[in-house]
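Progress report, Aim 2. The chain analyzed during this reporting quarter is listed below.
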Amino acid sequence: MQQTQNLVCEAGLGLRRSFIEEALASPLNNVSFYEVAPENWMTLGGKMGKQFRAMTERYPFICHGLSLSIGSTDPLDEQFIRHLKDFMHEHQIKFYSEHLSYCSHEGHLYDLMPIPFTEEAVQHVAQRIRRVQDILEQKIAIENVSYYAAPGQEMSEIDFFNAVITEADCDVLLDINNIYVNSVNHGYDAEQFLRAIPSDRISYVHIAGHYVEAEDFLVDTHGAAVVDPVWKLLGKAYELYGIFPTLLERDFNIPSVAELQREVDMILSIQTAWHTQNEQLSA
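Predicted structure tokens for the chain:
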């Protein structure tokens, strides 16, 4: 996705099979683009495959990967990357993002595991990202992830993230909820973290809900409505860097399409408020 420099209001939604028929029958007019995990759609045929084709013919799409396992010590799955490239070409999908994590070790672990915050890991991960970009013949975006332990930590999360992004020369998928969740769980200042992000590399933004296990322990679930502190942090991101395309994630406990649209409208309202304030300051 081309970076949006500070002016255009764009809100997206993760496409789920549970509402694809409704989205085709009654277009969600406040949704500018959709996102899918390619692993869940690449091999689909039949009715669902035709419905997905109908969606990609009508709307811009982004691929957000789940299984690349960019931080793993397993060999990089280059066959998957080439299939991904074909899938993106087939559906005219312009952009791909992945998590700064790993999910395999001699087989899939079915969870996103934290990469040690070390210089060795920076070099390892960056080399793998560069290889992915070489195969896809385009830059990808890497997402800051939620994590619940930091094994072998030699540097801070933000220093590790920025070092990987710089060494790999890739873009950033900025996840606002992950910043908030990590700030609570690991006791750091969310706004300070946000200010340290390389803003010129931000391609788009994720926002989602989480589960409150305890006052000082949040779990990034994408299974609840976005909470006020996360909305406020999104507003701070716009205040600092201008408007970027922003996508609502909801992976389970999926509510009605009307409720999803209300949260998409919230994204647009925050973007519009920033736009209006910026115009007033420029007048």
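The chain has one domain: 11-282. Residues 60 and 175 are 20 Å apart (CA to CA). These observations will guide the mutagenesis work planned for the next reporting period.
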